Task: structure prediction
Amino acid sequence: MEIVIVLVALAAVVLAIGVTVGIGLSHRREGPAGIEPPIPADEIAPGGVATATAPKLEAPPIAPPVRPSFRDRLGKARGTVSGYLAAIRSRKVDDETWDELEEALIRADVGVAATQRILGDLRAAAEADSVSDPEDLLDRLKAQLKSELASGDRALHLDRPGSEGARPAVWLFVGVNGVGKTTTIGKVAHQQQALGRSVIMAAGDTFRAAAAEQLATWAERTESDIVRGSEGGDPSSVVYDAVQRGAARGHDIVLADTAGRLHTKSNLMEELRKVRRVADRDPGNVTEVLLILDATTGQNGLAQAQQFAEAVDLTGVVLTKLDGSAKGGIALAIQTALDIPIKLVGLGETIADLVEFDPDDYVEALFT
Ligand code: GDP
Result:
């Protein structure tokens, strides 16, 4: 009898352990909602195949391919002007309305000169039409801002007049350190590949070892070819080698990183001019020189843009970090003061967070 009791107790214990372990395992496998837990991004190889031995990547995880919207990502910049807009909407148009509009635009870093010109034009037209409804006035402001931003060639070109079909096209990325050059090159590679083009990266910032490392991470992540030089080596020869290899391997575009800092500013600008000259040598064909600007630096970005524009003929601006910027008006300042089209905008850190600049969406996101 005692033996039977002991056996029954043992069986109960074994059963209880089995059930507990079973539940634990099934939870781990399915997760609480019965969904397969995601594989951590650093365990996903560039080809999308999970592997435990993949090197740990520093770049942020690949986001789902959802196009981020200006409306969703410009919350911080909208916050800068929303209080003023609420005050303007609360009464008929009067002198104070104009002061509030001026402060709103200057706070958003549209810049004093651009703000005064824009509001001067708007006021003249509004007074001529006896506009008193604040909504009417704000609609006119938005329409004017959209038209200020409407001009400019925002396309990214593979060809240049007179050298059609020459490949590879070279796109140079210039700008000071930390603005998001490497990240943008990774994002652009991803976009161009999605369009069926093959790219090769050139780690032209030989001044900082970390820059080449970071670019290599993006090359791995996007499965792109890359040419790296030795630290402190000649950036022009890295870009030249990338052009040669790009031509030999049939790549469409060389995405060339450049240094953001050298011993002196004049060195840097001189070097950029040289990189451009060398990149343009047959079979290379420089079709884009893109200045990367960090939107959170506001008016400082404008000064940087002026310096780079003097050194190399810029074809466009990529405005990064607009998602984290309270100074979203800088896009207006750049385009109106420098007449350089903003071609792309960074709205976050992941690979999908780069979109074409859409003036209408941008103005609506900022002033609604
Ligand atoms: P580089 O020195 O110019 O090459 O700059 P990096 O590409 O290393 O970028 C510097 C930092 O800015 C990194 O932490 C990036 O993840 C971040 N970054 C780049 N673009 C964006 C963007 O559009 N939005 C946000 N929020 N962060 C960005």
About this structure: The radius of gyration is 27 Å. The pocket of guanosine-5'-diphosphate is lined by residues 177-183, 214, 260, 320-321, 323-324, 346-349, 353 (CB under 6 Å). Residues 181 and 219 are 14 Å apart (CA to CA).
